[in-house]
Amino acid sequence: MQKDIATPIRTQEILKKYGFSFKKSLGQNFLIDPNILRNIVSHAELTVESAAIEIGPGIGALTEHLARTAGKVVAFEIDQRLLPVLADTLSPYDNVEIIHADILEVDVQQMFESQLQNYKDVMVVANLPYYVTTPILLKLLMDRLPIRGMVVMMQKEVADRITASPGTKAYGSLSIAIQYYMEAEIAMIVPKAVFMPQPNVDSAVIKLTRREVPPIQVIDEEFLFKVSRGSFVQRRKTIINNLQSSLPNGKAKKDIIIQALGKAGVDPTRRGETLSIEEFGKLSNELYEEFH
Asked: End-to-end alpha-carbon separation of the chain, Å?
């Protein structure tokens, strides 16, 4: 068995060998604890029949554990300086494909067709760069990829928002957008000490499992997310006030909004954070004709 990349000594050796310096702008924090990596991979429940998509492999610490478990790993790395490092550290594994690209600009659907056509079970497993966690997650969801789900590490605060329930401080439009497509749970909390360099914040791994069908049928998904985002513009304000200021010509259409809230069974004096996804779905359906 290969010596793990993710130990403090081996990581230091690799960084020194390639004269690598961390770029803060890319949110580079490398994991240096093999036990945590094994734990992350176990939550993904991969077999040789599975494929894994990784974003930001760094020097290959997680990639290596994925390669030992899955049939194929496709990893997207934005930092050109890491390509020779990955070619070296992952040389023992012939089931890894490194793509030099920004995941936010990639046609992932096309990659599926060219690289993963033989795999019916695909998971996204990644230590996401913290500064673009939300855009990456939303892109992967909106692209309607044929994945079973994701096991991804991120800032704990973002993980709390994604998994939040109605009526809590962390609950917001991000919770709704992700829970509409996925069942979300925090799989584990990861301490700062297992990263190099250490981040300033605690991290968490969340597991997202794709829903067979969304929790509510809506006329237009984009409009649902527009209504939910609009309902949280100012958290302290009531839903009627937020919708008046966020929907086009909302102030002039106050009566129409109140009527739609009534039909959806939502009291206009409630705050957005108290509405469930089901309530937002009903409300967006009632408002759709007038505002889409």
From this structure: 57
